[in-house]
Design goal:
The structure is a single chain. The protein has two domains: 2-99 and 263-298, no CATH class; 103-258, no CATH class. 46% of the residues lie in helices and 16% in strands. The protein is built from 14 helices and nine strands. It has helices at 2-26, 37-57, 59-63, 70-79, 113-122, 127-135, 138-144, 154-157, 169-183, 193-196, 214-221, 225-232, 241-244, 248-254; strands at residues 82-87, 90-98, 103-104, 197-198, 207-208, 259-260, 265-273, 278-286, 291-298. The chain has a five-stranded antiparallel β-sheet, with helices on one face. Strands 3-4 form a two-stranded parallel ribbon. A two-stranded parallel ribbon has the order 5-6. Helix 1 (2-26) crosses helix 4, helix 5 packs across helix 11 and helix 11 (214-221) packs across helix 12. The termini are far apart.
């Protein structure tokens, strides 16, 4: 009975958070119907500012930053994936997900390199691809004592390419296009990189194992696609490796990555639809620090 009451309170708290955020969004001011490109961009910026203010001032959302609120965060993300409203002639849809469901590609190092190689080998991709990735992470190479000489011709063909770390999906797309052309290997095009990697310079960024994608689990556990899907699709809320039912080998493999079972970071996606266009705003929100970062506008 006590567990049932606790669960009911948790669900009610999550509903309150969702309703509070949704109500705040509906109160955003409607702009003029006819706007120039600059004015539209300004309007979108104001919309973002209002959304951040709502997130920052939500006492209910702040509760999710507490160390014992992992289950509440899980329920919030399960039940508040989409909040939509009309703002004049615009339809705005705000969606939330965990910002720690993917593997930060820049956490690649000597320790976990064999697991990167194993993952791509299982997908019929040559080890040369992982070597090219390493060459694009000069920061890691210096730190770990790699020979800085380049084995590939990537930087001969793209001398302007940033090489300290991999900064974005567009950056990786250039690298991937070079590899496929150089090796004549189209298999790389079958890898769902949008589900596998995130891009951050922060080497301490963790993977939240309650939200990790099947692609990420396959790589960090060094296991098969089927096994990763089994773990991902269990429907369980994980609190430990034992709770996940990992084998000894899987535990040894995952130890080469920074992981957690609670990371209070949101990936926020804002979709703005009008008769003329579709615009998006993506950013990460740190619930504990009450701040957004890594903003990407596509107008």
């Amino acid at each position: 009975m006590r567990k049932a009451i606790a669960l009911l309170i948790t669900v009610m708290s999550v509903m309150i958070i969702s309703v509070a955020i949704g109500y705040g969004l509906t109160q955003l001011q409607t702009g003029a119907k006819s706007l120039s490109e600059e004015e539209k961009a300004y309007q979108y910026t104001m919309l973002l500012d209002d959304l951040l203010e709502i997130l920052e001032s939500s006492d209910e959302l702040a509760h999710l930053a507490e160390s014992d609120a992992s289950e509440e965060l899980y329920l919030f993300l399960e039940n508040s994936r989409y909040l939509s409203f009309l703002q004049g002639e615009r339809k705005v849809v705000v969606s939330f997900a965990s910002a720690r469901s993917k593997l930060n590609i820049n956490t690649f190092n000597k320790s976990n390199a064999p697991l990167f190689r194993s993952y791509f080998s299982r997908h019929m991709i040559a080890n040369g691809y992982v070597d090219i990735l390493r060459e694009c992470m000069h920061t890691n190479q210096v730190k770990e004592g790699y020979n800085n000489s380049y084995k590939s011709a990537l930087f001969e063909k793209h001398p302007e390419l940033f090489r300290d770390y991999i900064a974005s999906k567009e950056h990786l797309e250039i690298i991937n296009a070079f590899y496929m052309q150089e090796y004549g290997d189209e298999a790389l095009g079958q890898i769902p990189f949008e589900k596998l990697f995130s891009y951050s310079l922060n080497p301490a960024q963790e993977i939240d194992l309650n939200y990790a994608t099947a692609e990420v689990l396959e790589l960090i556990l060094g296991t098969t696609r089927e096994r990763a899907l089994e773990i991902k699709g269990s429907g369980l809320f994980y609190k430990s490796f034992k709770n996940m039912g990992l084998s000894k080998e899987e535990e040894q493999n995952i130890a080469h990555f920074r992981t957690t079972f609670f990371a209070p970071f949101l990936a926020v996606h804002v979709l703005i639809v009008t008769d003329e266009r579709v615009a998006t705003i993506d950013f990460e929100y740190d619930i504990q620090q009450k701040r957004g970062y890594n903003f990407v506008f596509e107008l």
